[in-house]
Amino acid sequence: MSYATQSPSAYNIQHWRFIALVKHEDKERLKALAYKQQKVVDASVTFIVLGDLQGYEKLPEILAPMVESGQMSQEAVDKWATSSSKNYINNDRFARDEAIRSASMAAMTLMIAAQAKGFVSGPMIGFDAEAVKREFNIPDRYVPAMLLTVGYPAPGNSPRKPRLTADQVLAFGAGREF
Questions:
Q1: What is the spatial distance between Cα 18 and Cα 70, in angstroms, rounded to a whole number?
Q2: Which residue ranges make up each domain of the chain?
């Protein structure tokens, strides 16, 4: 988790939050809301990855250590907080996009860290987000971006699915069709 918290985010808001489900009964509750996907229960831990729609409100607190260390002035922090607030307040789509984008980057960092430590992981979008919020008492300020299963490799794990090649996804300059 400490690696995931090093992920980038807009304005350094760090929109991500994680709920780690390790108890069998909690994972069973989630499985019912994730279209009965067994990997939710089989994983050592299943994370509910959340994006904070109102994360900008915490920016002064997040940046306070920079003021204390002399890296930023309080005036600069105040300007940064005001600037970020203007982008998020009354712009629900922007807030949602940034919350999901930042949560997704943190989830990917967590996946890479898990792999480096010998674990396997799987991101999941197959779940009822509103039901998950109700079942796990998640406040409205958070949007479930994905579920993320992490555990030990096991017989029967699906092999990696085919990937597009670099030539199929990379263009230099404008005007190339993919």
A1: 31
A2: 4-169
CB atoms within 10 A of CB 18: 17
CATH of 4-169, one of 1.10.10.10, 3.40.50.2000, 3.30.450.40, 3.40.109.10: 3.40.109.10
Residue 9 has a CB neighbour count (10 Å cut-off) of 20
Phi, psi (degrees; rounded to nearest 5) at 52 = -90, 110
CB-count exposure of residue 24 (10 Å: 0-12, 13-18, 19+): exposed
This prediction's pTM:
0.92
pLDDT tens profile 3-38: 999 999 999 999 999 999 999 999 999 999 999 999
CA angle 154, 160, 166 (to 5 degrees): 155
Q: Which CA distances in Å does 21 have to 27, 83, 148?
A: 6, 36, 10
d(CA 10, CA 135): 29
